[in-house]
Structures are given as C-alpha cells and as structure tokens.
C-alpha cells in the first residue's frame, strides 16, 4: 500500500488580485521504502507541497483535494489534533535552511530532546526518563555522524557550522522513527563535501530502515544518484511522474526533457564548447500565471490546444500531462 | 564581554562629561550676569561682588572654572536652592526618588497590562481581537498625557471622589525620609498607623501612575504585538509546527522567549519616556517630584536648581539607558551584538 497518496491537490492563496492557484491538481504517490524526488525550478511550488502535507498552513490558504491519504487515512478530513499526532510520529521534515529552522535561543540538545517521543524510549520510571532521553539523543547524533555530541548538544544554532546544523535537523527528523521523511532541499547552499555526506546519510537511512524519503530539490545530479521515482513540477502543476530510469531514458514531457538537458552531466553526447540548452524565458510569478498548461509560453511545442489544461495520461507507471508529448513524433 | 563593558563605560563617561560641560555653561547661557544668576544676590557692592567672585572661582579661566565645578559636583556640593535655601543635592535626590518611584510603578502597570495584551493581539493577528486592541491602542497613544490626567482628576477624584486629588500622601501622616520611595519608607517606618498610611499612599499613587501608564502601555502592547507576529511567522516556528508540536508547546517553548528577547531592551527603554511623562503629570498632581521641582524652579528663576536638576535627570536617563543596553548585550543568547556601543 502506498504511504502517501495525493490526487488533484489544489492549493489557493488569497492575494490582492483574488485567489491564486499556487498548486493546480498535483498528484503524488509515495510507496514504502521509496526515495521519491520532487523536482522543479525555484518558485514551482515544491515547498508549498511540503507545507501542505505536514499541515503548516497559513490561514490565507485554501486546500482542496480529491484524495490526500496517509496509509489509508484521509489527512484532510481528520481533526488538527489527529493530524498532528500522525505527523509527530510518522512524518518528519528536514527543512531548507537548518539555521533558521532551529530556535535561535534554545540549545540544540533541548530541541532534539523535545521531538523524541516518550513511547520511543525504553520503559523506566520517571526519574530515568531524562537520562534515557539524553542517551537516545546522543545515539541519534552518532548515527547521523556527529561525534562530539556533548559539545554540540550544549551549543546554540548560531555557534555551529551549517552542515552540523543540517545533521541535527536530520537527527531530529529521525528521532520519532518516522515512516516518511520529507527532505526539503536539504543540501541547499552547502559545500560539495558536506552535501555528499548528507546525501549518503539519507540514502543509508533509506536502505537500513526502510524509510521512505520525499526528496525535494532542484539538484538533478543528487537526485539521479538517489531517487527511484521522480515527479517533475512546473509552476504548481505536475508535469510528469514516473520511474527515474524511465524518465531519464525517455522523457515524454517537453519540460522534463528541457530540465534534463539543462544538466550537462546527463548528456553524454554533448560536444565540448557547444551551447547549453535551456528554455527561453523564466518561470512566471504567481501573479501572472498563464491559463491552461502553464508551460505554454515557454514550451517549444506549444499549439493552440495548450490553453486548455491537459489531462493526465498514463503509460504503465509513467504519467504525464501534455497535449503533444514527445513520443508522438517518434512513432 | 570585557570589550562590551569597556565600550559602554567609556561611552557613559564621555557623555556624562559632555553633559556636565553643558550644564556648567548653562550659567553663562542664562540671561544676565552668571554670578548674579548663581548666587541670586542682585545688588551687591563692588567689594561684595569680588568676594562672591572669589567664592565661585570666577576669576579663573573658563576651563579652570569648569574644573572647580566638576570638583564641587563630585563632592556633593551642588549649590543652594534660592527658593528654599536648602542644599540642592539633597533636594534633588529626594524629588528624583519620588519621580523614579512614580515612573517605576507606571512601568510595572504598563507591563502587566501591555505585555499580555500584546501577546494576545500578536497571536490573533489580523483577527477581530487584534483590530480591536490596535484601535484601542491608537486611541490610548493619541491622548495627551496632561489631558488624560486632568480628565482622570475630574472624573475620579472630583465627581466620584474615589481617589485624592493631589500630593503623595495625606498630610496626616508624617513619614520619615529614608529611601525616598514612599511605600518603602512607610514599611520601614514605625508609624502607629502604618497600614492606613500605606493604603493612603497607594490611593495617591493610582491616578498619576495610571495616567502615565496609558501611553506606555499602548507602546508596550504594539512593540510586543509586532514581535510576536514576527516570531510566530518565522521559519523555526513553522518548523516546530511541522514537527508535530501543539500550538501551545510551540508558543510556550519557542514563541515567548524569542518574542521577548528582542523587545525587552525596547520596553525597558520606555522608562525614559515614562520619566518625561511623569514630569508633566507631576505638576498636575502636585507630586513632589523632579518635574514639579524643575517647573517651580523655572517659575522662580532658581538658576542653580534648574542647572542641577537638569543635570541630575539627564545623567539618570543616560546611565540607565547605557546600563540596560550593556546588560542586554552581555546576556543575549543568540549573540546578536551590534558593533558599536551606540543606540
């Protein structure tokens, strides 16, 4: 059974010019033990999806979905409290900016201990609790590769390097022994060595613990080395989704193709000094969204039909939404 | 830490030095002959004038006179008041204590009322409660202090007769002077009717402190609200929610402290505004404080009193501001330290 199943998630934001569809009929399915990548340019609504899943929602947002279930339980229908309970025990989030996602005036150790559930600790009388909690916390830290746990647990977020902060975030995410970890661009702005460490850590956790990971990023290189499945997002619309290998071999949506081509490391046939390909224009702002397929104005294959939103089509596990997918030509 | 202390102390000394220089030159800036201004003796003979000039070290240069002045300041000899003939050092320390007492109670009142309201408004951001509180605060902020005080007197002491009209304590009680804070003095004293004296002093305090507190209370509320709104929309609060903590846990463990730390200095700094307002309200309530004293001194052309009073008030405000700033910089856990000991 799939862990998280989202169908036609639409999220509207209240703005001065009326309600804007920041997410337009998003589909996302995450199965157990899977690393699922969510890819898109900045501004394509990746972080908003994450917020919608964990329920960190502003009052000015309106969420509708045909289906949004967590292991068969409807997330949208349940009460805030029930939802929080699920999130506390089953879903964890690793945020983009570790430093600003940690409380600046509470020591890291206290923040880590705060997320450890009492049920995850060994049974003991209440005077043993604090000790058990501390032991559990330091074990967690060892697991994510922090050796001087004593020092770091006493520190405040601004006193320690960025990658250690991110490791702390991962430790906090793992503390509740969740089923799903949502990593929202966890390596943003990091040095390459720290980055590969964190990525390795995540994929190890995935293998050892059968933990599902929703990996949100625009770092294609990192994604292709880790993820089994990929969902490509453009401007709040799911463009294409499917197995990583399949998508890389034969992308059906023009945007996916452009995205993959924009990363030189995927192109074996690229001659030296040849110009890199990219789509013209930039991602539209949420105030000026095009109607129909939102890629329309930038799409090299756009025709008149593209002012209507394309239906989701499916070939086995591979879904895409485009009126004129790439495989049509190749027939 | 040593660096912070050094920086602030040097700033304090430098500013106090400039202040003392300014207060010294006041004698020359007042209209008329400086010696006449300082002594109050108008038509002295030439001989008498010479003696006075010698007493006041007027024959030396401007700088040597200043040096003399500073020496006297430090030895506690601040001159005599014209109107009462008493040494100014004592008179000012008494009235300053009365002013500080009044402002301190007003500050407490505005904290007790303003902080919770600010938190409430911040948590209910852009909701009815928030707007209602904001509207009230605008009204409170716009009312002139002296007008509010007069209206309060009209309603509560003249029409309703709940509180006394003016003064610090009823004339029936003779509280011996010890600390200058009347409530503490009453508690320390061995009056036979301590309890009544205390109650009476409290009743005298209510109207002036409340009318000063109105403005400060709205300021406290607005600052708190702004900070709470900012903190609650910050990323780490969102992250804490996403970790599945309940709103209460998030607010108590992460919200309150983070909201308070940046604003505490701002709030404590309100003390100086408060003191200024207190000086105005004192004249209305005939509170024997420094504001009242200064106004009387101005009416009576009591130049030494004006000079010393201004120096005392500004030195107090300065020392207070700089000390608070220093303490906060030392204890800020997030290490937000501005480079200079300014602000």
TrEMBL record, chain A:
Family classification: Belongs to the ABC transporter superfamily.
GO cellular component, one term: plasma membrane
Domain ABC transporter: 4-260
Membrane topology designation: Peripheral membrane protein
Protein name: Peptide transport system ATP-binding protein sapD
Key word DNA repair present: no
Gene this protein is translated from: sapD
PANTHER family linked: OLIGOPEPTIDE TRANSPORT ATP-BINDING PROTEIN APPD, PUTRESCINE EXPORT SYSTEM ATP-BINDING PROTEIN SAPD
InterPro entries: AAA+_ATPase, ABC_Ni/Peptide_Import, ABC_transporter-like_ATP-bd, Oligopep_ABC_C, P-loop_NTPase
Any one of the GO BP annotations: peptide transport
Top-level lineage group: Bacteria
MF terms in GO: ATP binding; ATP hydrolysis activity
Subcellular location: Cell inner membrane
Organism listed in the record: Paraglaciecola mesophila KMM 241
CDD domains assigned: ABC_NikE_OppD_transporters (cd03257)
Primary residence: membrane
Keyword annotations of the record: ATP-binding, Cell inner membrane, Cell membrane, Membrane, Nucleotide-binding, Transport
UniProtKB/TrEMBL annotation, chain B:
Topology term for the membrane: Multi-pass membrane protein
Molecular function via GO: dipeptide transmembrane transporter activity
Protein's cellular compartments: Cell inner membrane; Cell membrane
Pfam families reported in the protein's UniProt record: BPD_transp_1, BPD_transp_1_N
Source taxon at top rank: Bacteria
This protein's GO CC annotations: plasma membrane
ABC transmembrane type-1 domain residues: 96-328
Keywords: Cell inner membrane, Cell membrane, Membrane, Transmembrane, Transmembrane helix, Transport
Membrane-spanning intervals of the chain: 12-30, 102-123, 144-165, 205-224, 263-285, 305-328
Coiled coil: none
Family note: Belongs to the binding-protein-dependent transport system permease family. OppBC subfamily.
Record PANTHER family: DIPEPTIDE TRANSPORT SYSTEM PERMEASE PROTEIN DPPB-RELATED, PUTRESCINE EXPORT SYSTEM PERMEASE PROTEIN SAPB
Name the record gives this protein: Peptide transport system permease protein sapB
């Amino acid at each position: 059974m799939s862990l998280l199943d989202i169908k036609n998630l639409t999220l509207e934001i209240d703005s001065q010019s009326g309600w804007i569809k920041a997410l337009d009929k998003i589909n996302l399915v995450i199965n157990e033990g899977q690393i699922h990548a969510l890819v898109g340019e900045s501004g394509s609504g990746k972080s908003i999806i994450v917020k919608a899943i964990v329920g960190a929602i502003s009052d000015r947002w309106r969420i509708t979905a045909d289906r949004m279930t967590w292991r068969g339980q409807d997330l949208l229908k349940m009460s805030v409290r029930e939802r929080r309970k699920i999130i506390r025990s089953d879903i964890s989030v690793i945020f983009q900016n570790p430093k600003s996602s940690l409380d600046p005036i509470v020591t890291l150790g206290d923040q880590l201990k705060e997320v450890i559930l009492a049920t995850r600790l060994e049974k003991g009388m209440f005077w043993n609790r604090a000790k058990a909690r501390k032991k559990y916390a330091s074990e967690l830290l060892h697991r994510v590769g922090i050796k001087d746990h004593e020092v770091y647990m006493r520190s405040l977020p601004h006193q320690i390097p960025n990658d250690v902060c991110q490791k702390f975030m991962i430790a906090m995410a793992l503390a509740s022994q969740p089923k799903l970890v949502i990593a929202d661009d966890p390596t943003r702005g990091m040095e390459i060595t720290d980055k590969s460490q964190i990525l390795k850590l995540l994929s190890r956790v995935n293998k050892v613990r059968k933990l599902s990971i929703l990996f949100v990023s625009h770092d294609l290189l990192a994604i292709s080395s880790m993820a089994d499945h990929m969902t490509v997002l453009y401007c709040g619309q799911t463009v294409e989704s499917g197995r990583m290998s399949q998508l890389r071999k034969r992308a059906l949506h023009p945007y996916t193709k452009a995205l993959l081509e924009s990363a030189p490391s995927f192109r074996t046939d690229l001659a030296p000094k040849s110009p890199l390909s990219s789509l013209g224009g930039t991602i539209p702002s949420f105030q000026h969204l095009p109607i129909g397929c939102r890629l329309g104005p930038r799409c090299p294959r756009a025709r008149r039909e593209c002012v209507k939103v394309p239906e989701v089509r499916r070939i086995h596990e591979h879904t895409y939404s485009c009126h004129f997918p790439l495989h049509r030509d190749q027939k | 830490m040593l660096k912070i202390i050094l920086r602030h102390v040097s700033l304090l000394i430098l500013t106090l030095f400039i202040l003392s220089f300014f207060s010294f030159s006041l004698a020359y800036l007042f209209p008329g002959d400086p010696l006449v201004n300082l002594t109050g003796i108008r038509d002295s003979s030439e001989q008498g004038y010479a003696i006075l000039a010698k007493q006041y070290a007027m024959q030396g240069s401007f700088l040597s006179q200043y040096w003399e002045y500073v020496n006297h300041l430090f030895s506690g000899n601040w001159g005599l008041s014209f109107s009462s003939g008493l040494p100014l050092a004592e008179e000012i320390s008494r009235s300053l204590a009365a002013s500080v007492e009044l402002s301190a109670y007003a500050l407490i009142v505005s904290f007790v009322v303003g902080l919770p309201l600010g938190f409430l408004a911040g948590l209910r951001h852009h909701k009815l409660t928030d707007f209602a509180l904001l509207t009230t605060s605008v009204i409170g902020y716009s009312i002139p202090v002296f007008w509010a005080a007069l209206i309060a007197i009209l309603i509560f002491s003249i029409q309703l007769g709940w509180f006394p009209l003016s003064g610090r304590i009823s004339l029936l009680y003779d509280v011996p002077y010890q600390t200058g804070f009347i409530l503490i003095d009453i508690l320390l004293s061995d009056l036979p009717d301590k309890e009544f004296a205390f109650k009476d002093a409290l009743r005298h305090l209510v109207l002036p402190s409340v009318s000063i507190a109105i403005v400060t209370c709205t300021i406290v509320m607005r600052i708190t609200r702004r900070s709470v709104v900012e903190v609650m929309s910050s990323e780490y609060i969102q992250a804490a929610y996403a970790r599945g903590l309940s709103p209460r846990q998030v607010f108590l463990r992460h919200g309150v402290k983070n909201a308070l730390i940046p604003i505490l200095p701002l709030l404590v700094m309100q003390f100086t505004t408060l003191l200024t307002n207190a000086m105005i309200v004192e004249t209305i309530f005939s509170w024997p404080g420094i504001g009242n004293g200064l106004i009387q001194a101005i009416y009576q052309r009591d130049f030494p009193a004006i000079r010393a009073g201004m120096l005392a008030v500004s030195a107090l405000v300065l020392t207070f501001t700089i000390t608070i700033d220093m303490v906060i910089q030392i204890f800020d856990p997030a290490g937000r330290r501005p480079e200079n000991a300014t602000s």
